[in-house]
Every structure is written in C-alpha cells, then in structure tokens.
Amino acid sequence: MAAVGAALARAIGQASPRWLLTGSAGFIGSHLLEALLRVGQSVVSIDNFATGHGGNLDEVRAQVGEQAWQRHRFVQGDITDQAVCRDACAGADIVLHQAALGSVPRSIENPSATHRNNVTGFLNIIDAARAARVRRFIYASSSSVYGDEQTLPKVEHITGNPLSPYAASKRMNEIYADVFGRCYALEAIGLRYFNVFGPRQDPQGAYAAVIPRWISATLAEEPCVINGDGETSRDFCYVENVVQANLLAAMTPDKRALGQVYNVAFGETITLNALHRLIANLAQSVQPGLTIHPPVNAAFRHGDVRHSLADIDKARTLLGYSPSVDLRLGLTESIGWYVDRIKREPTRAPDLFPTRHA
Fold first, then answer.
1. CATH number of the domain at 6-194+239-265+311-324, out of 3.30.450.180, 1.10.260.40, 3.40.50.720, 3.30.360.10?
2. What pLDDT, on a 0 to 100 scale, did the predictor assign at position 207?
3. pTM surpassing 0.90?
4. What residues are labeled active site?
5. Do 71 and 37 form a contact (C-beta atoms < 8 A)?
C-alpha cells in the first residue's frame, strides 16, 4: 500500500513490534490490517461484527496471500468484555484502537449503546493496555469533538460543545487517554478523523456514510438523498491517508508527539452539492451511459455540523503526516472498487455487504 512509504516500512520492520488492532473487520481497520501484514508484521486483531464484515477480512487475506495471513490471529470478541481485552493485549507493544459504534444519528437514537461501546469499551481496552505494559496506544477520535465551535479551519486546541452522544463519547476517549498518559505514562496518541472514505466502506443501512451511499445509489441509477440544502461542506479523507497517520503515530520517535491529538484529513473542503456532481461525473467516466438522476433533498440531520475543514499542520509537523490521495483520486479508486465488487457478485448488487459474519 502506498500509504506505507519506504522509510516508514523500514522503521516498522526494524522495530518489529507486536501489534493489537481492534475493529479489524471494519472499513478502516481492515486497511490497517492489510498494511501491517504487507510489511511483514504479526498482528492480533479483534472484531465482534456489529458493524464490521467478515468479507473485509476475506479480502485482506486474498490481497496479502496465505503466508502473510498466517502472521495474523483473529479474535471474535467484544471490547465491552474486559476478559477479551486483557487476553488480546497480552504481549502487545502497540495498540491501534479502531473499534467503535459510529454515526451521529445512531448515537442520538441509542445513546446507551454508543456509551457502552465507545466509552466503556474504550476504558476496557486502554486499561488492559496499561496492565499489559503496552508501549503505545493509538486511537481513533473524531472531528465531531469540535461540536458547535465555528472556527475554520479546525485546530486541535479549540473545541466547542459536543452536539451528539457520539461526539461526547469521542471527547471522553481523549480525556481518558490524557489521564492514562498522566497517571500511568502510557504513550497515547489520538487521531481526529474527518469523513474518511474508500473501498470496503459499507453503503447499506440507515447509518451509512454519504460517499459509499451515493456511489451505490449512482451505480444503481437511483437518486441520491442530500440532507439539507447541499451547501453543507466537509473535508473528506481517503482511507490510505488514515493508514499513513496511524502508522506514523505508532512509530514516531519524537517525544513531543506523544499525549497529543491530531486532525487527520486532507485539508480541503467541498460542499455536498459539488460532491454529488463529482461522483456523478466520475461514475459516468467509469460506466459511460450511466443515467444520473437529480438529487433529492431531505431535512437537515439533527446533530450535524454545518461546515468542517481541518488544519493539518500539527500532524505534518510532529508526525510527518503528508496525505497523498486527494478527493478526486480517492473517489476514482472507490468507485472502481464498488464497480468491481458488483461485477464479481452481480446477484448481490446493490447489497454489497450481505453478511456481517465471518
């Protein structure tokens, strides 16, 4: 994977740490697993298949080959189970914690489930990491922690009031990570993801993210639904850039970088109206003759922020983060993946993810 440059791959190979990855059957987690196995690492991973898919693990296995796959031990388990967390952390040097229950709307509908997975689960895994003397703990936070703060671009030290239980859960993760760093000298780094997208992202269900949902609808020649007037803007980040940020955070020797949170984004913004046009144009270039329907506007979603744009200077300076895949290229890669998936399994289209179990 291009996200793991030669210098970073050498650093990982020389250190040869033991890795624990949570949420490995998920969209981002499966890309991290693939990247680590491609550079010769041994990985223990956990997933409960609540939102992840066995098909993602199957695809990683096919991509890396059987020899690399043998360096991976998968645990089907839940981070809300303390025993599962303790067992998985045993012997690990670095934890990449991706497991969470995502979606702002889902958290508003079921705040208890969000808290159980994202706060109790987080505390379980970071405490197990502490007890196992894990050296470094990298965790997924979210741009949602900026809440009602209007400053653009978003800078890490200026946050507002959370606008959803999901945002509150991610803010609590950051608080706990900071406390564990202070109390137990755990090297923790948080990564605030901004609207990550790419291959393997589930387009189905009420809580699907906008890009996979719209790609799926466009390829099926169905109208896309825009929540609000379409002038809401977002900073979309291709998954390969996120993999790069995680591995840089895991390997940085710079002590100044520890105990920090970082924006992980591309650093550019686009409105939903412009995004719809871009997806339509790119899809038609892949499938000439595709019928594009005008979008359908629906009500604004409760808990959504109006505009989001990241300042990524801190990650550039302290981690060496340099996102290499922009929105257009990332969309091209993503659309190609969904088209290939439909060709491979035409009877399952548009249900590209028919099962969540391995």
1. 3.40.50.720
2. 65
3. yes
4. 166
5. yes
